Amino acid sequence: MSRKAAVIALTALAPISWGSTYFVTTEFLPPDRPLFTGLMRALPAGLLLLAITRKLPQGAWWWKSAVLGGLNIGAFFPLLFLAAYRLPGGVAAVVGSVGPLFVVGLAALFLGDRPTVRTLLAAIAAAFGVSLVVLKAGAALDLVGVVAGLLSALSMSAGTVFTKRWGRPEGVGALALTGWQLTAGGLIILPIAFLIEGAPPALDSANLLGYAYLAFGNTAISYFLWFRGIGQLSASSVTLLGPLSPISAAVIGWAALGQALGPVQLAGMAIAFGATLVGQLTPRTAAAKKPESFSSAERNGQELSMDLEVSSVRR
User: Fold this and answer.
1) What's the gap between Cα 286 and its chain centre?
2) Which residues contact 168 (CB under 8 A, 6 or more apart)?
3) Is-contact 49 314, C-beta < 8 A?
4) For the chain, is the Cβ count within 10 Å smaller at the N or the C terminus?
5) What is the C-alpha separation between 104 and 99, in angstroms, rounded?
6) Rounded Cα distance, 94 and 279, in Å
7) Nearest-angstrom CA–CA distance, 179 and 174
8) Angle at the Cα of 137 from the Cα atoms of 132 and 139, rounded to 5 degrees
9) Residue 232 and residue 218: Cα distance in Å, rounded?
10) What is the CA radius of gyration of the chain?
């Protein structure tokens, strides 16, 4: 397996893990506490990574970390949960699946990456495939939910593009950058959660187990892999891994909750997965030259594995 293929495979674990969020939320967590759940996903994981890495932002990276944390976590989580509560799950997933199209446009604007026809078609095919997997007949639309879903996709897309644009400070690994963003995002959610939802609910052992998984497996490790991938792959390549999340959710729902997967859903999964694979192909114009961020990581020998990164700092 080539190094790029290995990076793609590891980055893909992030959206695959995020596909388990619905199952864990419905089976292990207290109901009707979406903001508290977002807070418990982000802040404990961010503080743990800060403790492990012992690195704080310097200079301009204080405000850059706040901006990235707000886009990727602080705004994304509340908007995502608002959409999920106002829309049927399938509609919310379809609205969120336009993220790759947002990334293509923002990457052209801020990164100078001209979109190719193949990338645009892959993004459209991915959204169509996701709609076949999750959309149910007669699904209702809610204007507030649709706007929240679109804004959540735009927020995460902008976070992806600016994470790519700003890179990382010299000597700082993806683990530290992940900790900065999760902490900043969690601190943004903290007052909103308490103002809207009040004091934390009483938690039993199942709740604690669910929150522990969401914070460390589903968030700390997954976002580390996601941000690491952004540093070494193109923004469009990373975001076109996103459809793996609803595919993962559908498979988990079938295996663990007995939800049906008919021919239409299977066809949608095949289309979305095919679009994801197409999105990882290197454009012909770039085939002769590796992206600078990827070759730089090779030269420096950084982050050969997650275990090496954890020794300095830890989607």
Assistant:
1) 25
2) 174, 176, 177, 231
3) yes
4) N
5) 9
6) 18
7) 9
8) 100
9) 21
10) 19
